[in-house]
């Protein structure tokens, strides 16, 4: 059974605008128990970001037309490899939710894609939120929730497009619980001890390379089980998750920092020792990580690294120290950087498809292309 998209609230010329941030995992999601249902091998914990995000504009097209997808200013066809995940997600949402209206979708990142900044999390998250808002005609979170589309439901739907996307639907520090079955997965926000808002941490993202990665995270997730290091990793993770939760609750950066560095290196060790093997770090990455540890031991750099499936380190530090950290990196390496901070999660609003929105999107692309710090 298909449902007519409710075009009453979103007229043909009106668009919905969804902005979904990226997130950086402090305890990584690596390996899946069920890849179709995106059931992870382990719980993960992330920090939701703020500046690194995807803005996606969606508008209904008349029935009979085909979906139009534009990513970072380029129109992409359904058979374009770079858009396969997006078209697959639209097909999944249609089958699951029963909507059939075609959509015109424009998506822009504030950061380069496929370089170790989780563009799939914000990209698939924003696509899911924008498509559902356009089909249902709901142009704010309150109205979407009123129509039965809770944050948890949309996060679970986004998870099918990209596992890590589900964590981006909440602000602050988020734990994705694997549960005992694909259906019992859940998300929780790690409470702040005094309820005064999340811990003000920054993520200085160092862009060593923005080249597309050779092994996708989908391929590497599947290969993880073949690594001799994977079973010992899973056996020790409960303890690490507890330590990370405790460090966040106590706002103890030194404790958190030491754990996230071991965690990132362990995930990379699993990827490298799997069959097929994936080496995401470049020579420059290794040199940079050694530099971080050396400067920190000299008390000059109050920051700890983590890495996603890519060569670009994320330096976690207090928001207060972020500029100083970026200055030191700039002075010694000259790399481009994004100075990001803990964020509050996605936004959704209605907007006319005017020149204004179009030009704002162009500006976002310009920011992504010229990250000159
Ligand atoms: O959501 P995916 O399939 O792109 O996998 C993300 C995996 C990591 O970014 C490396 C870790 C994580 O938990 O985000």
Can you give keywords for this protein?
373 residues; alpha+beta; eight-stranded mixed sheet; four-stranded antiparallel sheet; 14 strands; globular; disordered C terminus; binds (3R)-3-hydroxy-3-methyl-5-(phosphonooxy)pentanoic acid
Characterization of the model:
By secondary structure, this protein is an alpha+beta fold. The protein is built from ten helices and 14 strands. 37% of the residues lie in helices and 23% in strands. Strands 1, 4, 5, 6, 7, 8, 9 and 14 form an eight-stranded mixed beta sheet that branches. Helix 1 runs parallel beside helix 2, helix 1 crosses helix 4 and helix 2 (119-136) packs across helix 4 (151-161). The longest helix is centred in the middle third of the chain and has 21 residues, at 230-250. The model is unreliable at 6-12 and 366-373 (pLDDT under 50). The chain binds (3R)-3-hydroxy-3-methyl-5-(phosphonooxy)pentanoic acid (PMV). (3R)-3-hydroxy-3-methyl-5-(phosphonooxy)pentanoic acid is lined by residues 25, 28-29, 44, 118, 120-121, 162-164, 217-218, 221, 308-309.
